[in-house]
Amino acid sequence: MSALRWVRRPPGSSWGEFGHDDQLGRLNLITPTKVLQGVAQVREGRSFCLSLPLDVPGGQIMNPRRIPPRRYAVIRDGKSAGQQGFCWSYQDEDPDLTDVVNDDVVLMSLQYSTQWDALSHMGSRFDADGDGKDEVVFYNGFRAGVEITAATADIGAEAEHARYPGPNATALGIERMAHHGVQGRAVLIDLEHHLGRQRQAVGYDALMRILDADHIEVESGDMVCLHTGFADTLLAMNRQPDLTRLHETGTGLDGWDDRLLNWLVDVKLACLVADNPAVELVMPKLGAQPGLRRPRLPLHEHCLFKNGIHLGELWYLTELAAWLRSRRRHHFLLTAPPLRLPGAVGSPVTPVATV
Known about the structure:
single chain; 355 residues; nine-stranded mixed beta sheet; 9 helices; 19 strands; 19% strand
């Protein structure tokens, strides 16, 4: 391997666009000018919460690997259970102090509900060294097992699916996104208004027709949000998701449409968000040959691995979409920082749209 992290970059990628050590990807396009453009969209001072409650979807039916929030009180000694007065030791509360304290702890999958995907969330097997052998690499050539390590030891923890300690993304972790700041101009594309909530893949032609019909222009550094209505349908299920109905609900981008993938890069959007579980519609490639190596999630590979485009999933966009449409608007100020949790590959987020 050369002194550089990679000597070959994947076809259709933009590795090195912001330097060989860049860890922000297209977030670099959220400049002070883009922040000011976002602030200029604030005309009424009204805010919309774009997050689902963090215990939605409910259970593990939608994704058996991801656990919903489980909350606990911090360890309490003394007379009270869960609520406790201040004490100078961990055994006896001070009767002369009037304070009563609640503290709690949460265990949850960071990508259970409304979330950001870090660039370390998904890599690919690719020959970045040019030696004829594939390595597991991430955006800009950062390596699995070096900068991005997975846990291996099974400690048999009580919580199922939370048994493997120590994964760490020393590069491309979600804290990079948090430190940069996620605030600027966003644009909402209302797929649900034009296509309804029936499950279908949206390719380049359909998306261009919608942009033309609504007179929407996506500019460099914009954060693009796709409203499909999926999260609204899910929320109405009150934490008891009906998989059959959900599998028939909501559009998603067609990750197999090369023209669409090229547009996502050429338009220079800063990040891509949807109110569905994956942004793209998860489906096998029609007519694929058995044994042909390919990603299951081609848009994820294209955005996270190849081009440094962060993805937001399961956002709640329905109320904002209705308000914007009633006023013939599409742009707004978006503020959506993830948790500044070093080494994490994703994060819950409570985005706020201000109009």
